[in-house]
Amino acid sequence: MQLQELVYTSLSDIHADPDDVKDILTASEKNNKRLEITGLLLYDGERYIQILEGDPNKVDDLFGKIKADSRHVEIELLHKGPITGRSFQNWRMAYEALPLGLLDELAENMAVFSMELDGKPLDAGESFGSRLNGMFMDAIAAE
Ligand SMILES: Cc1cc2nc3c(=O)[nH]c(=O)nc-3n(C[C@H](O)[C@H](O)[C@H](O)COP(=O)(O)O)c2cc1C
């Protein structure tokens, strides 16, 4: 099975409801299971960074749907590329809330890193997913 990872960032809508994330995760749990999509959603109260992993067509289709969601704006693709394995195997959509302002720099660094790659494939363990998984594990351990 071909696998792809897709990472984007966006800003929550100015009228964001505190229940938005809960609703998003409920939909993700249901749909991502059916689509065999796994990933991580990071949110710092303002900015989202999400990674989606799975079949390339299914990931692209889901991203199309997510892009049309009015709960967020200024959606920017940071990276898309083939992967040899999943980094969030056990999560339909893992979630971590982070302190405000933490994701701006991360999003910028990821965009630059992806541009430098210029389409070159990444070795296993170098994927955006494995980097984000490392951060996610550190965040959990610090809780
Ligand atoms: C930041 C963000 C991330 C989202 N991530 C997912 C996701 O991983 N899976 C999903 O099915 N919907 C996700 N959604 C919600 C979709 O845009 C859409 O509302 C949902 O898939 C509709 O589900 P339904 O067709 O079952 O009602 C996300 C929305 C936002 C704003």
What order do the helices and strands come in, and which of them pair?
Layout: E1 4-12, H1 20-35, E2 38-43, E3 47-54, H2 56-67, E4 72-82, E5 94-97, H3 102-117, H4 128-142
This protein binds flavin mononucleotide.
Flavin mononucleotide (FMN) is lined by residues 10, 24, 27-28, 31-32, 41, 48, 50, 62, 65-66, 69, 71-72, 93.
Structure write-up:
This protein is of the alpha+beta class. It has one domain: Alpha-Beta Plaits. It is built from four helices and five strands; from the N terminus they run βαββαββαα. The chain starts with a strand and ends with a helix. It binds flavin mononucleotide (FMN). The site of flavin mononucleotide has 16 residues, from helix 1, strand 3 and helix 2.
Secondary structure class reads alpha+beta
Bound ligands, each once:
flavin mononucleotide
SS element count, helices:
4
Main sheet attributes: strand count, strand direction, barrel closure: 5 strands, mixed
What is the CATH class?
Alpha Beta
Cα Rg: 14 Å
Please, what is the average pLDDT?
94
How many distinct domains? Answer: 1
Comma- or semicolon-separated keywords:
single chain; 143 residues; alpha+beta; Alpha-Beta Plaits; 5-stranded mixed β-sheet; 5 strands; 41% helix; 27% strand; binds flavin mononucleotide
Short précis:
The chain has 4 helices and 5 strands; from the N terminus they run βαββαββαα. The chain has 143 residues and is an alpha+beta fold.
